[in-house]
What we know:
Distance between the termini: 29 Å
Radius of gyration: 20 Å
Largest sheet: 8 strands, mixed
Low-confidence stretches: 238-243
Helix content: 25-40%
Number of helices: 6
Mean pLDDT: 87
Shape: globular
Structural class: alpha+beta
Amino acid sequence: MKLVALIHPCVSPPCLNVRLFLLQCVGSMDAHPSRYAAAVRVQQHRQEVINDLSSMVKELLMQFYKSTRFKPNRIVFYRDGVSEGQFLTVLNHELRAVRQACVELEPGYQPGITFIVVQKRHHTRLFCADKKEQIGRSGNIPAGTTVDVGICHPTEFDFYLCSHAGIQGTSRPSHYHVLWDDNGLSADELQQLTYQLCHTYVRCTRSVSIPAPAYYAHLVAFRARYHLVEKEHDSGEGSHHSGNSDDRAPSAMARAVLVHNDANKVMYFA
Length: 270
């Protein structure tokens, strides 16, 4: 039985005036995939590399096993918030962290890993050569349009995918870079998988612009920020106090963003 675990980490700054970043990582809990669980950590600011990724992935893999009674044979790892100059650094660190998490679960356990970076901040736009194929009032390209020749890198594995139907303005396709692929997936298989994941986002009845795990990781970040704000209100400090309080220590903030295991089973962030 071939099971695939989808994992997406994310780094985002908290809303409070503290020098810490929130780290979110979501992973699929079934073979569809439709259910996800989340792991949240805090780390020092200005560090794009996720330092505690190994323990987060290990936690998600354990939850995957509890949910399915199987270990995943393949791991598809989507990552956003990384510029092209950081590709090598992030790949070397985070790929090693995922490998370490697998070995810590069981010696010799080495599932195939596919590492994909998602980019939305670029200036590439796609247009229909034939006006008959335009969609909507804005004349955008149809949802599912994929480009992997011509405007892509001549030697690296990347592609553009516009997975959503633009309602207003010009659609911006997402740019995907496949940095590592142990699973030997073809370009068509990866593009179809990515496009299908854009249809599984529970808050929308249409396809969205990036895969659902990426959206879920950002929702986890928003919820974690609310947990920190509630901690500020409950402590009675307010924003006028200095950042030297014990309640703003990394350990205290790490406890504030933790959720109960039962809540994590029901996608509390969605």
